[in-house]
Amino acid sequence: MTILVTGGAGYIGSHTCVELLNAGYDVVVVDNYYNSVPEVLNRVETITGKSLKKYECDIRNREGLEKIFAENKIDAVIHFAGLKAVGESSRLPLLYYENNISGSVVLFEVMEKFSCKKIVFSSSATVYGNNPIPYQETMTTGDVSNPYGRTKHFIEQILGDVYTADNEWSISLLRYFNPIGAHESGLIGEDPNGIPNNLMPYIARVAIGRLPQLTVFGGDYDTKDGTCIRDYIHVVDLAKAHLCAVDKVLNGTGIEAYNIGNGVGYSVLDIIHAFEKASGKKLNYVIGGRRAGDLPAFYADATKANTELGWKAEYGIDKMCEDTWNFQTKNPEGIK
Ligand code: NAD
Ligand code: UDP
Q1: I want to staple 89 with a disulfide (CB 3.0 to 4.6 A). Which of 73, 148, 157, 180 is the partner?
Q2: What is the whole-number distance in angstroms between the Cα of residue 272 and the centre of ligand 2?
Q3: Using one digit for the tens of pLDDT, what is the confidence trace for 171-197?
Q4: What predicted TM-score, i.e. pTM, was given to this entire model?
Q5: 194 in helix, strand or coil?
Q6: Is the C-beta atom of 261 inside 6 A of ligand 1?
């Protein structure tokens, strides 16, 4: 079985390629390296001792995608390729709509042309907006406060329409919570360009000395210690959820959404303290003002993924911090 992984050189995609190769799938990656480097895929091959097929191509490039489908018999697609910075999406909404939505539409059209109707899509917990917690798949989605989140909601809706029009499609919408951690080899991990937006890579860069100080965004929320609560999930657990979802889409038809989280909420201070323990470093941080658009607390009800996909997160917060630190110390300047 051959799986096309769009955005396979990225953070979650690369970890998923490792799991796919280890499980015996043939893997074809398409990535334009906008937010990654080709070396990541060499490292995936080092970790697994297996090779994958790589195409440098933008998913908006229809001819390029058609060539990939013509040269490979693709059985299913895992679609990670997209831009993901929430703040940037508010400054550059058209870039986000063009890259994420137009790119996805081109991909789905090419899939249809080549009669490949099985897809696992990277969605996000952000589609739940201001729902009560824990989030459940049955809740209404789409009350989202930024263009990035809206691209995820719209692509879910587009795939819903595609399935309604043609019941031969088989679609899993994976709503990720907060992926952190790294492969335990320390060869691949999260390596954002520029100053990180997300908590964990920011913490790791403060700990290694590349950034002077972490600002905790808000200490006055109505939570146990005043800081925001999120559902952090080890990226390897998340990658394994894709194996379960691929199995599901290969063996049936339909469209389903699944929450992929631990079901446990940790505060920003919990994460800081767990990271200090894992790294043995004292983190330099200050409590600052709230970040616009942040919700006080959310976490997953991941029961559906457990009962229908047979997936459950295995790793806890200590392992997430240890593996992040291992990756950071082995790659102090990132992956070149
Ligand atoms: P990432 O930026 O590390 O990986 C995305 C990859 O897609 C990159 O390698 C990038 O170069 C590539 N890409 C982007 N646009 C492309 C295009 N037009 N054509 C070809 N390649 C393109 O991000 P990630 O953290 O691995 O996230 C993967 C997916 O999961 C994204 O769709 C993201 O929105 C979604 N997601 C991520 C998180 C998170 O916190 N990391 C949470 C929820 C959902
Ligand atoms: N956060 C923080 N300082 C930072 C980055 C993030 O305090 O430099 C907080 C943020 O307010 C949120 C949590 O860490 O409560 C997780 O933020 P992240 O951007 O990683 O993920 P989000 O949940 O916003 O998608």
Answers
A1: 148
A2: 12
A3: 999 999 999 999 999 999 998 888 999
A4: 0.98
A5: coil
A6: no
